[in-house]
Specification:
By secondary structure, this protein is an alpha+beta fold. The protein has helices spanning about 5-15, 40-50, 50-55, 125-140; strands at about 15-25, 30-40, 65-70, 90-95, 100-105, 150-155, 160-170, 175-180, 185-195. A hairpin with a 2-residue loop joins strand 8 (about 175-180) and strand 9 (about 185-195). Helix 2 packs across helix 3.
Length: about 200
């Protein structure tokens, strides 16, 4: 049986974590809780291959583990956090050359799935649009909501539970493209156009 120290060493060796804290799970003595922050490599592994493949790639060390992902930044605006039951947890947030990449956990417990639809919950396109707009406005520092949305496409439905990567790419000082994907499948995309900045 692997010890907590050997499990920690195995996980650290993957390069998937920038921070890792293993703890005993008081409610389940045979399991451990891993509070982690993802590295760029770990973020990419989940974005490209999904969480199940990510877990499987860790080998037998993950058998007794429950992961708790901690994002080091605060991407959601404060006003949105007043109703956290409607927001997906953000597992990771990377920013490079002005482009933001976020991993969103789409839990069946989100309020948006109540009644939509009882036999097979799906994530509504308007909810995806709202989340992308809130994050774009906050992360790029726009003071007002988008003036318009262009080139909007909904390609594949999102079924919970899921982990999506949201990419926010600046096209111009007043336009940002968004794209939701999981693995190599695009779920939705479009472009937010903002009005001239306030003088």
């Amino acid at each position: 049986m692997m010890t907590m120290e050997s499990i920690s060493e195995t996980l650290q060796a993957t390069g998937y974590f920038s921070n890792l804290d293993l703890r005993a799970n008081p409610s389940q003595p045979d399991r451990l809780t891993a509070a982690v922050s993802l590295s760029e490599k770990g973020h990419g592994q989940i974005a490209e291959n999904g969480f199940t493949a990510f877990r499987d790639s860790l080998g037998p060390a993950t058998t007794p583990l429950e992961f708790q992902f901690a994002c080091r930044s605060r991407p959601w605006p404060d006003a949105a956090l007043e109703k956290p039951e409607g927001l997906p947890a953000i597992w990771s947030h990377l920013e490079e050359n002005g482009m933001h990449r976020l991993l969103l956990e789409i839990s069946p417990a989100l309020t948006w799935f109540k009644g939509h639809f009882p036999e097979q919950p799906i994530l509504a396109g308007v909810v995806q649009l709202n989340w992308a707009g809130l994050l774009t406005q906050h992360l790029f520092g726009f003071r007002k909501t988008p003036a318009s949305v262009a080139r909007l496409k909904f390609q594949h439905v999102v079924l919970p539970p899921a982990v999506l990567e949201l990419k926010l790419t600046p096209i111009s000082p007043l336009a940002v493209q968004f794209r939701y994907s999981s693995g190599h499948r695009d779920h939705s995309q479009g472009r937010f156009n903002f009005a001239e900045p306030d003088s």
